[in-house]
Amino acid sequence: MWPIIRNRLIMLVFVVFGVSFITFLMSNVIPGDPARMIVGPRGDQATYQRIREQLGLNDPLYVQYVDYMKGIFTGDLGTSIRTQQPVLDDLITYFPATLELVIYAFLFAIFFGVMIGVITAVKNNTKWDYIGRFFSITGVSLPVFLSGLIFIIIFYGKLGWFPGSGRIDLFMELPPRITGLYTVDSLLVGNFEAFKNSLWHLIMPSIILGYVQLSTIVRQVRSSMLDVLNQEYIRTAKANGLSEWFLIIRYALRNALIPVITVVGVSFGMLLGGAVVTEMIFNWPGMGKYVVESIGFLDFPAIMGFTLLISVGYVIINLIVDLLYIVLDPRVRE
Amino acid sequence: MNTQTETQPQTLTTTQTLSKQKILWYRFKQNPLTLVGTGILLMFIVLAIFAPLLTPYDPEMVNMSERFEPPSSAHWFGTDEVGRDILTRILYGARLSLGIGITVVVIAGLIGSVIGAIAGYLGKAFGQFIMRMMDIMLAFPPLVLAMALTAALGPSLINAMLAIVIVKIPVYVRLARSEALVVREQLFVKAAETFGLSKVWIIARHIVPNVISPIIVQVTIDLGEAILLIATLGFLGLGAQPPMPEWGAMISTGWEFFLDQWWYPTFPGIAIFLATLSFNLLGDGLRDLLDPKSTR
């Protein structure tokens, strides 16, 4: 167990350096000039030079990089060119919105992924198998911008069942910021109206986002279920007359879920980075929307901060997955 | 007697290889989803190749007198805001999407396999270094990396392609390396080493060709994703630029007209969906075929 943790932590340091180095390089080889962006095309030369000096753009490249790395370890990710706020503050503001969306999308994907995975495995090579797999593969085949827009047209435009944008209605009183997750905060203070309202806003985008990850989970659940269903102890239990679904849930699924944890971890990481388009379509005030707007502005401190956060998050999630694996599967503990 | 002993082993081997192929083909046919995927894919390939013969219209020629015509016998899928036939644009768009998708994934696959083969064959510190680099690249969110790259280099189709190639390489490096680790222990590689052949020669002649088959499956799986990425970048205005008949870009402009001209974004949307679906169904089937677990 300890070697795994040690290796992952070394990996984490590597990733922080690597990702920051690559994004840093990218932000410097590009033709765009952030100082020019701030001053505007008609800004005078003196202001332009002053801003270049302020941003440290006149220093040699390695000095700029060392400065940036110093900042990372003291919690300073630079100042966003677009919002003129510290990038870290911006990310802290927008992170909970993305996290909440990703958590709900994730729950959707796991719930339906495991369910469809089990059904397709038990009903292997029947029409239910094919329907289930077709349904899940559709999720990776629909571009998010398309499925999102279709959902908005149908469920918001035509039927009016769900709100089409944002995290909560404008007239709604915002719950106090405790965790930043509206559904959690509103429950903590007992504001059920806000809870219901924010949950309602979450449904469409989280289904759209979660649907993309569905097929990965279905595939893994199905394959490991097929594996387990062919084991001796399942046959023995069957011969002892246990009912089929009891057996599937109680005996088979438990063991089949262990290898699923790995894909699930990867999915979570993918969701964090993949929320970008969903957030744009649903006008969701999260990090994804923030970074898209920053990209349009060539706001590299913001892009670098976002990428760094996501990449580090990805490595940490993988570490958690490895540890969970050890806890759940005694065989790998040695 | 003599002839019999000579022919016997020959027939044996032929029936063996035949039956193996037959089994694979049988299992391939068995899954209706794979067949559907293959069918749709073949249809797209045919449509893409014969696009100029299938339609009398030009995909980029503006014809203001025929703007926003609903689907009719003259324009099966209607026309867009400057009177271009949408079916024609979808057909030419198939050339673009399939062509770019295949180019991008094949280039990423080739570069990735070569790097992976080198990393796997040379092993040691150099291999470790390359793998750590790839780990770093894998930790990047792919869409964000692609978006940042295209935004930085300037939005264009070529830059979008470059971005997707870069994003896709690490997966192939990993795959090729793990294969190369197995191949380098095999006798023919050891033999080549004893002959004193150069490392470059061994990698090019022995390692790369032997790691290529799992790469091909991965290429099929990635094609769907690559087409989606191109469409997404196009939709965001970071990929193909107008007036190119790119599906994602068509939806992006068509969407504003959806309420009155429903056909404009709808048909390109269906095209993206079907093209991606066909690759995903095929990739799913191929994985099943090669997964020893699913033989039962």
Protein described:
The complex is a heterodimer of chains A (334) and B (296). Chain A contains 13 helices and no strands. Chain A has helices at 2-29, 34-39, 45-55, 61-73, 87-122, 127-141, 144-158, 182-188, 192-229, 232-239, 244-281, 287-296, 300-328. In chain A, helix 9 (192-229) crosses helix 11 (244-281) and helix 12 (287-296) runs antiparallel to helix 13 (300-328). The N and C termini of chain A lie close together (8 Å). Chain B has helices at residues 2-30, 32-49, 51-54, 86-122, 124-139, 142-153, 157-183, 187-194, 199-235, 247-254, 263-290. The chains are: A mainly alpha (334), B mainly alpha (296).
Poorly predicted ranges of chain B: 1-13
Helix content of chain B: over 70%
The rounded Rg of chain B comes to: 24 Å
CATH class of chain A: Mainly Alpha
Strand content of chain B: under 5%
Strand percent estimate of chain A: under 5%
Category by helix and strand content of chain B = mainly alpha
CATH fold title of chain A: MetI-like fold
Number of strands of chain B: 0
Q: Separation of termini of chain A?
A: 8 Å
State the order of secondary-structure elements of chain A, H for helix, E for strand: HHHHHHHHHHHHH
The dominant shape of chain B is elongated
Identify the CATH homologous superfamily of chain A: MetI-like
Main beta sheet of chain B, described? none
Radius of gyration of chain A: 24 Å
Order of helices and strands of chain B: HHHHHHHHHHH
Condensed summary:
The complex is a heterodimer of chains A (334) and B (296). Chain A is mainly alpha-helical and 334 residues long. Chain A contains 13 helices and no strands.
How is the secondary structure organized here?
The complex is a heterodimer of chains A (334) and B (296).
Chain A: H1 2-29, H2 34-39, H3 45-55, H4 61-73, H5 87-122, H6 127-141, H7 144-158, H8 182-188, H9 192-229, H10 232-239, H11 244-281, H12 287-296, H13 300-328
Chain B: H1 2-30, H2 32-49, H3 51-54, H4 86-122, H5 124-139, H6 142-153, H7 157-183, H8 187-194, H9 199-235, H10 247-254, H11 263-290
